[in-house]
Design goal:
Elements lengths: L7 E4 L6 E4 L5 E5 L2 H7 L4 E6 L4 E5 L2 E7 L5 E7 L5 E5 L7 E4 L14 E2 L26 H8 L2
Parallel strand pairs: 3-10
Antiparallel strand pairs: 1-2, 2-5, 3-4, 4-9, 6-7, 7-8, 8-9
């Protein structure tokens, strides 16, 4: 899979919030934790890691709330205050990469996850038992392997 054509544009469901990603993402994986299932109203969430310097809000304002993921780590979640669409998650410090929700990209068909995390929470009908992609029962100790796999795709 080639590098993504930049910029990547996206936004919330109602269009009040719009963003632009100007640098190549660090990785993309599907997360099957219960929080991602709830926030996406689906079987998993797509986590597109980007450097904060490569992400800008070009329209609208984000609201924020704080929760804790299945790992116990604190997670800051941003969303559109009008329609509630989740835009990104941030764990760690203000310089850490953060996870843009892949479903908010204008053309999500250009995104193919490199692996899966929290597969112990994944639905059997997804067939991940036969996946050739890296799968982690919970959150991996390090995301270096997923970052390297994305870079080498």
């Amino acid at each position: 899979m080639p590098e993504l054509k930049l910029p990547l544009n996206g936004g919330c469901q109602c269009g009040a919030v719009r963003y632009r990603i100007t640098g190549q993402p660090l990785t993309l994986y599907a997360c099957h934790c219960l929080d991602c299932q709830k926030q996406s109203s689906s079987a998993f969430g797509l986590s597109l890691w980007v450097d904060q310097d490569d992400f800008e809000i070009v329209q609208g304002t984000l609201n924020e709330w704080v929760t804790h993921g299945d790992s116990g780590e604190q997670k800051r979640c941003t969303f559109c205050g009008l329609c509630g669409s989740r835009i990104h998650h941030l764990s760690g410090d203000e310089r850490s990469p953060f996870s843009v929700k892949g479903g908010t990209v204008d053309d999500p068909s250009v995104l193919e996850p490199i692996g899966h995390i929290w597969v112990k929470r994944a639905h059997d009908w997804l067939g991940l038992q036969e996946s050739s992609k890296p799968c982690f029962e919970t959150e991996p100790e390090s995301f270096d392997g997923l970052i390297e796999a994305w870079r080498d795709r």
